[in-house]
Structures are given as C-alpha cells and as structure tokens.
# Entry
Amino acid sequence: MNPSTAGTQLGQPNTTAIFFFLLFVGITLAITWWAARKTKTTSEFFAAGGGISAAQNGFALAGDFMSAASFLGIAGLVATSGFDGLIYSVGWLVGWPVVTFLIAEPLRNLGKYTFADVVAYRLKQTPVRLSAAVGTLTVVVFYLIAQMVGAGNLIRLLFGLSYETAVVIVGAVMILYVLFGGMIATTWVQIVKAVLLLGGATALAGAVLYKFGFSPTALFSEAVNRYGPEALAPGKLVSNPLETISLGVALMFGTAGLPHILMRFYTVPDAKAARTSVFYATGLIGFFYLVTFILGFGASVLVGRQAIVGVDKGGNMAAPMLAEVVGGTGFLGFISAVSFATILAVVAGLTLSGAAALSHDLWSSVVRKGHAPEAEQLKVARISSLLLGILAVILGVLFKNQNVAFMVGLAFAIAASANFPALLLSMLWKNFTTKGAVASMLTGSISAVLLIFLSPTVQVELLGNASAIFPLKNPGIVTIPLSFIVGWVVSLLAPEAEASRRFAEVEHRMHVGAVVKPPVTVPTGVAGTVPPGIPEAPQKV
Amino acid sequence: MYGNSKDDLLKALAARRWRVAGALTVAMLVAYLGFILLVAFNRPLMGHQFMPGLSVGIVLGALTILLAWVLTGVYMLWANRKYDRALDDLRR
# Structure
C-alpha cells in the first residue's frame, strides 16, 4: 500500500466499513423496493406525490446539501488551516435564509417539478424551458462530475477499491434508487443519510471534546500551542478580498438556484410545510458545520497536520483519521461507510433533478407541447434517469485524475447566475418577458462558464499558463449582476403585453396557492398551450 | 373571483410578505458581508483572542451561522402566525 498511510488502517479493506456500507445499501434498497410500489405516477416519481412532511423534507434538504465534499473537505480545511474553514461553512449556510425568504413558498405554489415551471408560468413555454434546461443540466453535470470523481478518489482511499470500481458501484446503486424509487426513495435515502452523517459527526465531535473536558476553547488553545495563534485567525485563503466576496455571493445565491434543492419544495403538501422544512434544514446544516469545525480542530491536534497531509494533500482524510484515533478501526469503518453513503445520496438527488429537466421541461413541454400522456411521461422520466446515471459513471471515469474541485464552485456560480435571477424576476417583476428570461438564463450560464474558463483556476492551475485573462477564481460578483441587468434591459426593450397582463394571476397564485380557480383557466392561444407546469389538484379552501 | 376590495387586501398582504422577506434577506446579506469584509480587511481583529483559545473571528463566524437560523425562525414564526392567518381570512 501507499507508504504514507503507515500507522493508519485507511485504505486497507476494513471489515467494519464494508459491513456498515452493505447495511446502508441493504436498507436503502429495501426502501427503494417499498417506494417503487408507491411510484405509479409522474407526480410520485418527481415530487413523492407531495406527501413528504416538513420535518422529513428538512432532513432530506440537509441530506441533499451535506455532501462528502462539505463533510470531509471542510473538516480537512479546518484541520490544515484552522479558522479559514469557517469562512466556507458560513458561506455555504447563508444561502438558506435566502431560499426561505424569497424562493421556497412561491416556488411551491407556482410550480410542479422544476424551477422552469415558475419562470415559464406566464411566458412562452418552449424558449423558456429550453434555456432553463440548459442552466439546470449544466449545473447538474458539473456537480455530478465533482461528486463522481470525489467518490472514486475517496472510496479508493477509504476502502482500497480501484477508482473505476468505486465509480461504477456508486453509479449502479444510485441508478437503482432513482430509476425504481424516484423521489420517494431518494427522499428517504437522504433522510437516512442525514441522520447517519449528523449522528456520526456528532459522536465523533463528542469523543474529541471528551478528551478536552467538553471545552471547545481548551481544544482551540491546544491548536494554538501547536500551530501558533494563526490557527484562530484568517489565513491565506482570503488573500484577495474581492475574491472572497465573489465566492460569498455565488455561494449565497447559488443555493437558491440549485435544481436538486429547489425540486425538494415540490415534495411537501403546501407553502407552510415548504417554509418550515427550510427552517429545519438550516438548523441541521448550521449545527453540522459547527460540529465539522470541532472535528477539524480535533484532527489537527489529535492526528496532526503533517500526518493528514501525508495521506491526502487536500486534507480530505482528516475526519476519517480522527475517527480512527479516537475510536479505533471500528469507528473509522463507520465514518468511511457514512462518507460513501453521503456521496450516493447526493448523486441520486442530482440525477433526479436532471431527469426532471430532461423529461418534464424538454420532452413533455417542448417536444410534446404538454400533450404527453401520463404513462409516456413516467417512461421518459425513467429513461432520462437511466441515461443521466450512465452519463455520470462515464464522466466519472473520463475525469479520473483531473482536478475537479473547482467544479462545485462552478456549479454554484452557474446556479446563482443562470437560475436565480430569472427565477426571482419572474416572481417579482410584472414586465419580465420571455426574451428577457431567455437572455438572462443564457447570459448567466455562458458568462459563468466562460469566465471560469478564463480564470486562474483553469488557465494557471489546469493549463499551466503564466497568467489568466480574468483575475477572479469565482465569477459570481460579475455574472450575477450581469444576468439581472440583461434580463431587465431585454425585457424593457421588447415588452410582452400578455406576460405582464397575466402577472396578476402569478401574484395571486404565488401567495394563495392554486385555490380559487379551477385547475386550468388559461385562455387558449395564450403562450402556446396550457402550461404543463400547473398542479392539477387545487388546495382545499 | 374576488371582489375588488378583497383583491386589494390580498395585494397589500402580498406586498407585506415581500417587504418582510426583503428586509430579512438584507439583514442576512449585511451580516454576512460584514463578516466577510472583516475577514478580508481586519485580520488582526478577527485573530484577536479575547480569552485563551477563542478569537473574535470564531465567535463572529459561529454567530453568523446562528443568525442565519434565527432569521429563518423569525420568518417562519411571522409567516405562520400573521401571514397565514391573514391569508386564511382572505380566503373565506
């Protein structure tokens, strides 16, 4: 084995890890089998029939968001550079209040399966859904690549499996969840994973704090003794303030544009449950980040920075190594299995949201103009999931040994620039038009991808050039305002009378839900056809 | 359909929700940008340990996380108690 792993069981086949992992896969596949029998309609496939409670959705949202990257990555960052990890944690969290205040309820009341339902509500279906699908699929693909490559590397380190084997296992199990169990299975996988991850991380933090008389400051002081007062101060992560702010806004508004997060709001029965679920999720995720901070410091003191970096340059193995130090091989196995389960659950959620864009936005709305029968929609949804799952495996293998860490940042930047501005403008601004929405979404996607290509991350770190044309690693501070401005200007240049006339209907429904009107009263000939994104069942008055 | 006055009341209620939501969003944004700007421009302050093992930066970071949760809680309580009740009245 790798000589640098001497002194740790990491990377050796670990019986406990394999046992816990098989247990997790067994339980989740049993859930999938149960969910498959309840998944007979598109609504059940994509939105669990709206039957998920606020608390359940809170855990599932947290599960969707707490990726292995944030668990292992942030713990590693804190372990190797101290305070700096907290800057990331705060950034990842502050998007959630924005989701609560601005997005959750209107989205629940206006849409059906995707955020494009909301943007396209009073606009022309085909162009809006095409551009929304571009944004969604770009986000999903970059996020999937990052997760799959991360999965391959992590599992190789944790279990000693080959990279390709790991990617194929993740892909195959995830396809089973999504293909057969749809949103019901995916939601429960997220819940189980969230409980395991929170439980595991809390137990580990408890074991660390136990050694320091349950005093975090004693732990931090020990870190100061070892690594100097810099451990508790901002370090080299923030050498460029503009960079930090740009990353910050991308994280803040990116959360409000992530397709797999937005989709979860359709799984709850009403707007009240939607807002309550984000409250639970924000609490769980915030708690998780505070725990991760303790884990990072625990690892830097109990394992040592040198040992952590010796195993993995990025510091990603800090949390598993800490588990081995405080709890032995058994605990290492448990944490390894939880990390594996975490990746599985996140890719399942991503794949499902991509499949919704493909089948609901592209196939049912654009190709079939809302006339696809239910059975066909469900079939296309399943085929889309299968194709995306296979694509995820292929991409995972193709990008082996590539530095893909920037792709999560890229996914957030695209989500914040392509999806969030159009979504917000469509809910708030009467004079928003089809052309404005299309221009805003495409500008967001293209400018974010282009500027990241021109950024130091790709030009200097990946391609080895001496300098980059665009100075910032994260383009959010440029692309988010740009996308708003383009949407605004284009809408003003070519007003759309029909869209602004129907704003009253949007406003009404956004707050009241689908109450007053019978299912569909859209005048014929308006905006192409009847928007397919309208829930059939009105709420009870 | 609604009578005009009911429609107006609903519009006013909707506007109130956006105002509350907007104000809370701005509060979060200000707190977060404040934290980031302090990190970027006042490292000595953030690194200052006002007691052994606890720096200003750690406390402010943890408080920002806590504030995010508290603000969502404040919104949820307002919406559940005031907004939903007013909405229910309008639905009748």
Notes: The radius of gyration of chain B is 20 Å. Chain B has a mean pLDDT of 89. The CA atoms of residues 17 and 83 of chain B lie 7 Å apart.
